[in-house]
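thread: overnight batch results

M.L. [08:02]
morning all. the overnight job finished for the chain we discussed friday. pasting input first so we're all looking at the same thing
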Amino acid sequence: MSWRRSQPSPLGAMGRKRLITDSFQVVKRQHRDPDTKEGSLQPEAVLVPAESPTDSSLHSAQLEMLKQFDLSWEYGPCTGITRLQRWERAESLGLSPPLMVRETLLEHVGDPSFMHCLWHDYPL
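M.L. [08:03]
and the structure it wrote out:
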C-alpha cells in the first residue's frame, strides 16, 4: 500500500503542458490613440499659482522634510491621521518629534499637501 499522494499532472486534460498564465484572467489592454501615440487617458492640466523660485524651493525642501517625518517609524504609524495629529501624539508619548515639523505644519494649516501624510490616498 502506498501512502504517497497523487501529484497533479503538469499536463492539462488535453495533454498540453499548463502555463502559469492559464491561471489568470485575461485583461484587455487599453487602445492607443494613433494621434498622440499614448493611451486614451490624457493627464489633466493643473493650474499652479505663480510663485517666486525661492518660494518653490523652500516649499519643496519643507515637503521633503515632512516626507522624511512620514518615513520615520519611531513616531508611530501615520495612516488615518494628519501629520500634525501624529506629531502631537508623538510629543504626548515623549518621543521628541522635530519642532521644525510642527512649525512647518502650523505655517501651512489647510494645505492638504502639507497636512496629509504620504499614505493619505490609500484605503485603510
